[in-house]
Amino acid sequence: MMSYEEFTQKEAELESAPRAEREAFYAEILEKETAKTDVRMMAYFHAALLHYREGDFRAAREILEPFVIDYQSYAYRPEIIACFNLMGVAVYCERSYALARFYIHEGLKIARENHEISRYSYEYNNLAVTYLAQHEYEKALEAIREAERHLPDSDREMHAYIYRNLSEICCHLDRLDEAQAALTRCVEEYDGRTLLPDDILLVEMLLYYKLGDAERYEKCRAEVWQKLPAMHAAEFGNTANNLFACEMDAGNYPQVERILTALKSMGFDDVFEVSAAAELVSEATRAYLTEHEEQLPLISTACPSVVRLIRVRFPNLIPHLLPLNPPVEVAAGLAVKRAMEKTGLPREDIGICFISPCPSKVTYARSPIGIEKSEIDCVLAIKDVYPQLLKYMRQVDEDPENISISGKIGISWGHSGGEAGGLFTESYLAADFRKTVAQRFAAQEKELNATSDARLQADRGTWRVDMTKCPYYDTCVQYGCPELCPCFCDSDDITYDDLHPDLLWRRTRTLGRGNDCCDFCLRIKESLGAREAGHPAFL
């Protein structure tokens, strides 16, 4: 059996070895050395890290999952916290931010239990970045300030990294003086090791854009473009997102072209933007509103869940539904027409694949409302496509193919308030569904809260329940689409994570993902030792 010292020596020897050789080394340990030793734990970590750096986040997650479930069977080492960090990083890169926070919180819990105070800044920093990715900048700021508070006890290498992230968060909050001050501290603390110059460059680009310093912004932007192909997958994703945001805000669309070109490189014959169809729907909506003022108010049909809710529960509102196809269906129809004209192929030989950000649109494609059959032939979840897309985006040069036909109005549909903004009017009403539900079911909410409070007190701040039957899963199976159910599981992870600021959400198994139950668990933060908060690129 290999000792820990022998493992670290071999790991150092293999640092520059081909990927296949390193992968084989870790696989052999995990296969043959089944005892729960430090060596087996480190093999899990390094094997997952190998896949993570290649951008295969799902593989990294799957490798680490058996360990994080069973970590208490291993003797404690600080590297256990690194395993939870890497798990959180991998999940974060798959855009499952609520689940990422769960693993980060668990890492912080383990650090507190073992008095690893030097790790606190890591965890708070990581949590801050998950909020940053969701544009929850105030929560991100709270977490990164907590990371800053623990800096005196942290490794020196963390200082520059935390100030770098603080600067980026302040940029998004338009607290530009604080952003400049934080960036100055970042540069002062920079030691040339852990934090990459590219990380600093990205924040400089964002700050100069926010300050309106066109000359320095353009200089940074050009340098970022040049460095993109050599970045690790996670860093590339973050950089591309910020570059995209700046360019879109400025009315420049090279990043759109980069994404579309990369999609074609993945194997798609052609790409048609739903945002282009959204532009047409906005125009048609404006015309319909002008011509049918007697029908007001009108309800958007862009969301299939809203349309189904009205048809089932509020049929009296059906006359107020906007009689227009949603952008996704318009896009599919236009894509079919373009494909037939370009190729000369009949419709039955053309496949229209929709990359969807929303589970309800998957349901729409299978069972459309208002039309007999959708032009969409298959649906892919964006969270499955995005990690694979990153490597193709890196291969696109600064002069991507001229594909996009979208304008700013259509692209703005992807942001909150974008659809309403395309109407050129302030006479509209938008409602938060969660708030509506809370108001409508106030009595049930009170009863549930009272029951949950009692259960939490009885179980020392933890509420658990194993669901062995799920209506979403049963319905999906009944209609022959069990593969859809994980989308609802993902939706739960997002929704339950934000139930209350003092509650932590956890679930390791679901029926929809092929397990024997859904193991729901809620914990009061204080029961874990403190309010917890933390950037997943840092292990």
Write up this protein.
The protein is mainly α and 539 residues long. It has three domains: 4-252, Tetratricopeptide repeat domain (Serine Threonine Protein Phosphatase 5, Tetratricopeptide repeat), CATH 1.25.40; 274-431, no CATH class; 441-528, no CATH class. Helix content is 60%, strand content 5%. The chain contains 25 helices and five strands. The protein has a three-stranded antiparallel beta sheet with strand order 3-5-4. A two-stranded parallel sheet has the order 1-2. It is globular, with a radius of gyration of 25 Å. The two termini are 28 Å apart. 37% of the residues are buried.
Topology:
Blueprint: H1 4-13, H2 19-32, H3 38-54, H4 57-70, H5 79-93, H6 97-113, H7 120-133, H8 137-149, H9 157-172, H10 176-189, H11 197-211, H12 214-227, H13 233-249, H14 254-266, H15 274-291, H16 304-313, H17 327-343, E1 353-356, H18 359-366, E2 378-381, H19 382-394, H20 408-412, H21 418-421, H22 433-440, H23 442-458, E3 462-467, H24 471-478, H25 485-497, E4 503-506, E5 518-524
Parallel strand pairs: 1-2
Antiparallel strand pairs: 3-5, 4-5
